[in-house]
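Budget justification aside, the reviewers requested a transparent look at the raw inputs and outputs of the sequence design task funded under Objective 1. We therefore reproduce one unedited record. The lines immediately below are the structure tokens for a 62-residue chain.
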């Protein structure tokens, strides 16, 4: 495998790595209960997805 003849500068390396960053997840609000939900996921609070019941949530008893 060939070896580079010259070292890449820090600026050149940083330009390549500008897109290698972690971005926060995009959240939406549930139309049924108003909780924060990731896009294209079932609401963990009420179990609804796009206005329809997807998961039956059980009632907790104390």
């Amino acid at each position: 495998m060939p070896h580079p003849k010259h070292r890449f500068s820090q600026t050149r390396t940083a330009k390549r790595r500008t897109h290698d960053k972690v971005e926060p997840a995009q959240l939406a609000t549930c139309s049924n209960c108003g909780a924060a939900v990731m896009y294209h996921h079932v609401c963990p609070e009420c179990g609804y997805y796009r206005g329809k019941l997807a998961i039956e949530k059980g009632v907790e008893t104390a």
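The chain has a mean pLDDT of 90. Residues 53 and 62 are 25 Å apart (CA to CA). Computational costs for records of this kind are itemized in the attached budget.
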